[in-house]
Design goal:
Blueprint: E1 2-6, H1 10-21, E2 25-29, H2 33-40, E3 45-46, H3 50-55, E4 62-65, H4 71-80, E5 89-92, H5 98-109, E6 114-121, H6 126-129, E7 132-136, H7 139-152, E8 158-162, H8 166-193, H9 201-208, H10 217-228, H11 244-254, H12 260-272, H13 278-291
Parallel strand pairs: 1-2, 1-4, 2-3, 4-5, 5-6, 7-8
Antiparallel strand pairs: 6-7
């Protein structure tokens, strides 16, 4: 099959490589041309403008956008529209908010262009292991693009979730669950690290990956991380969030669904970005005032 791939970052480039392995014809475009040239060297067809990209694809075109969520996606659609035709299919494989996907699909529908929202999980391991794909959109567009999904995903690793927006909705909740799982592993290993025993965290992670009920791919990655740096001394405890956790918590609030684990894991990420929490200062000051509890003073 033929596909245009827009965005050749860590995910997009490896997705192209996986498609090339299955002999798809992939026309690639990236904002910076060096990435395009690199992929040309690996067998892709390079395009150095959106107009050139559209011209190098047969009608009806299938294009996959792999850029950061929010304004970059809207800007890319704005840039593509003058070069697209009725019957083309546009896929957003980034971590967009499902509400934005519905809005974009409605806009593109007025031009006769189909839109698929493809929640994509797999990270930098996707080239080797395949990508888990959660896809929303029409049955027609899904079936049309299914050869692409089959090549990108492992066995049973892709599915049609429903109408437009459903793919990114499922991916949003998927990442919310991930927040909670990561937090539980982080807290558990911190307790182990602070124990009165000289515990080998790499050995424990490896042990738990054999028969334990908490074994998982995330724990396998923890095992790898501890093998490289047993105390994680080379890593700062700053944790970013890419938006999906916030959206999942907001959805829970809007639907009156209690989601304490995901909510608290999001808030802990915010705490990780504070070198010196002001709220913690207030608590320390109040404890000193009412009970004379000692405070740790900051250097002048």
């Amino acid at each position: 099959m033929e596909l245009g791939m827009i965005g050749l970052g860590r995910m997009g480039a490896n997705m192209v490589r996986r498609l090339l392995q299955d002999k798809h014809r992939v026309v690639v475009y990236n904002r910076t041309p060096d990435k395009t040239k690199e992929m040309e060297g690996e067998g892709a067809v390079g395009a150095y403008s959106l107009e050139e990209l559209a011209k190098k694809l047969s009608l009806p075109r299938v294009l996959w956008i792999m850029v950061p969520c929010g304004k970059p996606v809207d800007d890319m659609i704005d840039g593509l529209l003058p070069h697209l035709s009725k019957g083309d299919i546009l896929i957003d494989g980034g971590n967009s908010h499902y509400v934005d996907s519905v809005r974009r699909a409605e806009r593109l529908e007025s031009f006769g262009i189909e839109f698929l929202d493809a929640g994509t999980s797999g990270g930098i391991w996707g080239l080797k292991e395949g990508y888990c794909l959660m896809i929303g959109g029409s049955d027609f567009a899904f079936k049309k693009c299914e050869p692409i999904f089959k090549s990108l995903a492992p066995a049973d690793g892709y599915a049609h979730m429903g109408p437009v927006g459903s793919g990114h909705f499922v991916k949003m909740v998927h990442n919310g669950i991930e927040y909670g799982m990561l937090q539980a592993y982080g807290e558990g290993f911190e307790i182990l690290q602070a124990s009165p025993y000289n515990l080998d965290l790499h050995k424990i992670a490896k042990l738990w990956n054999h028969g334990s009920v908490v074994r998982s791919w995330l724990l396998e990655l923890a095992e790898d991380a501890f093998s490289k740096d047993p105390t994680l001394s080379g890593i700062k405890g700053y944790v970013e969030d890419s938006g999906e956790g916030r959206w999942t918590v907001q959805e829970a609030l809007d639907k009156n669904i209690p989601a304490p684990v995901i909510t608290l894991s999001l808030l802990v990420r915010f705490r990780s970005r504070q070198a010196d929490s002001f709220s913690a200062k207030v608590i320390a000051a109040l404890r000193n005032e009412f009970g004379g509890h000692a405070v740790v003073t900051s250097k002048p």
